[in-house]
Input
Amino acid sequence: MRLSHTLSRLLTLTATLTSVGIAVNSSAHAVLTYPLSRDGADANKTGPCGVAPTINGPNVYTPGQSMTVTWKETVNHPGCFVVEWSSDNNATFTNLATVKHTTVGALPRPYSTTVTLPAGNCTNCTLRMVQHMLANETLPCPPAVPAAGSLYFSCAQMNASTTPPSDMGGTEDLATAPDLAMPPTMDGGTTATGCNFPGHAATSAGGLMVLAAAVGLLRRRR
Output
């Protein structure tokens, strides 16, 4: 009976702690919703981006653009969220924005912030959202030295978009642009037909004049 009573009390305590946001085994979870998280997992505690397998492809962005980043918190916990950027294969990260935790709204709780993405092309950059868990909301966040096990990571792979080069600064289709360096000749020839070589029109006209003069000379002799 005592064992049964003790077990019942432990289960009641566990349920109470969970209901107020203090989970027994893990405390807080969050995942990127835009740009799309590479793995969709909300419980990555291993840096820099967790160990869950990648299931989502890269997100395309324009260098230097403004982007509204969104994510959701699935378990309530005091602290903050840091949006970061890496362009060196996750070796280093730069802070783009810090967002304080809130208790407004029901779980899963949506968050968003607008950031300016760095300039420069990148074929495998990372946008990362890090959830910092703290004991209470009055502590500075992010802390200078995060406590062990106090971080959750959610990463999105980012690929820069590319724009075809244009000497004229436009977006015209280079395959159909006119050949401005070699205009069509008087005989209607083009580069495709092999007839617009320099001087070709003048040579053709000169040949016709010589032929006309020879015909006139023959008529006079008759």
About this structure: The beta strands are 29-34, 59-61, 66-75, 79-86, 94-100, 109-116, 125-133, 151-160. Confidence is low (pLDDT under 50) at residues 3-8, 10-28, 164-215. The longest strand covers residues 66-75.
